[in-house]
Fold:
Amino acid sequence: MNYNVIIGIVLLILSTLIGVELSKKYTKRKTFYTHFNTFNKAFSSEVSLLKTTLPDFINNNAVVGSVFFQGLANKFINKNSDNLDLSFLSSQEKDFYLNYLDNLGKGDLKTCLDFSNSVKGKIGEYLLDASTNEEKKKPLTIKVSFMIGLIAFIVCL
Structure:
């Protein structure tokens, strides 16, 4: 077998794997906003009905491995300000999330519920955008990277 064919196959596989890795940011973003939306809805309901404290609520509802819940735990339970990897979010989305963390749990019960209800629409918009981007851009990223690898394979022949 010719070395050019082997090099072409390696480039094809490598470029496809790079595309798969690049496309993971769309899934991370959708998962982040799904957890964000679920948390915000549950927070509004449970805190108003059961008068649960914020750290207890976070412990009871945390999803292991979730970047969203890791940020909540760092802020309210561990009192730790470790930087999270939020590279899959835009700077505006990072600011919104950090602002949410800063304002969550401040004030009395009514203030907390008002704040939670006021951001509900924006979280829903971000979730819809993340879902749409995942549906459209994730497969496109993988296909484009495969095509680049295919072109590299053809050039190597």
User: Anything to note?
Assistant: The radius of gyration is 21 Å. The first helix runs from residue 3 to 50. The CA atoms of residues 12 and 147 lie 8 Å apart.
